[in-house]
Amino acid sequence: MARLVLHTRDHPYAIKVGDKEVHICGCGLSSHKPYCDGTHKITADEGDHIYIYNAEKKREEFHSFYDNE
């Protein structure tokens, strides 16, 4: 089953593992999940809008699943 998952975070989670720090993707766009690859930077100007990003990281504003809204 396909799903859309709403990610509202615009930066990674910093996790300490022993004496090392790793960054876990929080935006959902990383090509190296679960690790951050810096893609979250393209979400900086989203404001209060909701966007869908395609495989090429191009975005389109999301309005509704239904044609009449």
Structural key phrases:
69 residues, two-stranded antiparallel sheet, mainly beta, 0% helix
Give the helices and strands, then pairings.
Layout (H helix, E strand, L loop, with lengths): L12 E5 L2 E5 L26 E3 L5 E3 L8
Antiparallel strand pairs: 1-2, 3-4
Describe the structure.
It is built from no helices and 4 strands. With 69 residues, it is an all-beta fold. Strands 1-2 form a two-stranded antiparallel sheet. The relative contact order is 0.17.
The count of strands amounts to 4
Terminal residue distance: 24 Å
- Helix percentage range: under 10%
Strand content: 15-25%
What is the helix/strand order? EEEE
Major sheet, described briefly?
Answer: 2 strands, antiparallel
Identify the overall geometry. Answer: elongated
Mean pLDDT level: 91
Please mark out the parts with pLDDT under 50 across 5 or more consecutive residues, or reply none: none
As laid out across the biggest beta sheet, the strand order is 1-2
Q: Count of helices?
A: 0
Radius of gyration (CA) equals: 14 Å
Q: What structural class do the secondary elements suggest?
A: mainly beta
